[in-house]
Amino acid sequence: MNKKLKVGLLGGTGLVGQRFVTLLNNHPYFEVAAVAASKRSAGKKYYDTVKDRWKLSIPMPDYIKDIVVKDIYEIDEIAKEVDFVFCAVDMPKDEIRKIEETYAKHEIPVVSNNSAHRFTEDVPVVIPEVNPDHLKIIDKQKERLGTKKGFITAKPNCSIQSYVPALSALLEYKPTKILVCTYQAISGSGKTFKEFPEILDNVIPYIPGEEDKSEKEPLKVWGHIEDNKIVCANNPTITSQCLRVPVADGHMAAVFVSFEKKPSKEVMLEHFKNFKGKPQTLELPTAPENFLTYFEDDFRPQPKLDRELEKGMGVTIGRLREDTVFDYKFVCLSHNALRGAAGGALLTAELLYREGYLY
Q1: Is residue 102 domain-shared with residue 171, that is, in the same domain?
Q2: Number of structural domains, the chain?
Q3: Does residue 303 fall inside a structural domain?
Q4: What share of residues in the chain are helix, strand, coil (percent, to 5)?
Q5: Together in a domain, 202 and 287
Q6: What spatial distance separates the first Cα and last Cα of the chain, rounded to whole Å?
């Protein structure tokens, strides 16, 4: 298929929406045809709505400036203009769940950045290199929704994408228990330093909802399809703590892991080096050439130095060593706003496009 698909951005004026705007500029598969937000922004040109709230260092692309923002509830009108939508709205979870399903029932596929449907049993939660096979559940989801084209797929929580890829490279050795501490950047809360002065010279030891997501979402990603639903994996056992730290972008994770079949350090490094998935095989536009990169330097990875690796779509790993309680420990880093948010959702959409789900 050579024609670009028309995309709608639900919640296109917020921080993640702005990331979508920049990533979709001159994209080979997709072009933005509609932007929707709250009634407060509806009826105004995108530039007039966002000019004082543009949060990125990248300038606002010209193509988006004159697009008139719609109300996200103008679903009939938006459906006439788009082939699918990205959803990054900031609303109560019940409202998000309802509006995403309403779009799907209007025959508009939804690629969601939100958590509302991550535990809906027939909604795939996809890291494209890790569990692309979960997209097969979409056909069963469409049967439930009564749709021919409309469905919902979601990307997982931004913080788990710092460490789940590294652990996924080692699944054949059967991890049994994992302890993870995440150190999460302020952009994960949708804020900049100007909007979040209390984080300066500070660490906040609680991020509502994050520890539950960190402990449960990996098990869905590592699950399997059975009886028209995705069944979460039973193992490993995961416990976590999640902290907000004074970093602009980049979520770091300190990982401790034990295995049923303990691999050597050399074997683990080889698996990190060679771990690839469908996005690399298909050479998807947003896919990193090297999904996982290991640093021998004990002082790496660092958010300031390494979050932009592979255009922010790579995952970096360092400090792999044996532990006195667990088998091994190491650290991981990913760009939460790119790999963990808009970029991860875009990569999922590229995979859906190539697999024929979007047309």
Answers
A1: no
A2: 2
A3: yes
A4: 35, 25, 40
A5: yes
A6: 9
- Has 251 been annotated as catalytic? yes
Over the range 166-179, which residues count as b (16 or more CB within 10 Å of their CB) and which as e?
bbbbbeebebebbb
**Active-site residue, 106 included:** no
> Strand, coil or helix: what is 104?
helix
Whether residue 121 is found in the same domain as residue 226 = no
Confidence of residue 11 (pLDDT cuts 50, 70, 90): very high
CA angle 11, 95, 116 (to 5 degrees): 80
Question: Could you tell me if residue 88 is inside a domain?
Answer: yes
For residues 309 and 163, state if they share a domain.
yes
Tokens of 138: 């979409």
Together in a domain, 35 and 153:
yes
Please pick, among 87, 117, 134, 158, the residue that the annotation labels catalytic: 158
Q: How far is CA 123 from the centre of its chain?
A: 15
**Interatomic CA distance for residues 352 and 346, integer angstroms:** 10
Instruction: Output the DSSP codes for 154-183.
Output: E---TGGGGTHHHHHTTGGG-EEEEEEEEE
The CATH code of the domain that includes 319 is 3.30.360.10
pLDDT grade, residue 1 (50/70/90)?
Answer: low
| Alpha-carbon gap, residue 141 to 125, rounded angstroms | 13
Catalytic residue among 251, 271, 332, 335: 251
- Are 45 and 179 members of one domain? no
Q: Is the same domain home to 103 and 47?
A: yes
Q: Is 359 domain-assigned?
A: no
Q: Are residues 98 and 133 in the same domain?
A: yes
Domain that holds residue 254: 159-335
CA-CA distance, 164 to 232, in Å (whole number)? 15
Beta carbons within 8 Å of 48's beta carbon, 6+ residues apart: none
Q: Tens digits of per-residue pLDDT, 276-316?
A: 999 999 999 999 999 999 999 999 999 999 999 999 999 99
Does this model's pTM top 0.85? My answer is yes
pLDDT tens for each residue of 103-162: 999 999 999 999 999 999 999 999 999 999 999 999 999 999 999 999 999 999 999 999
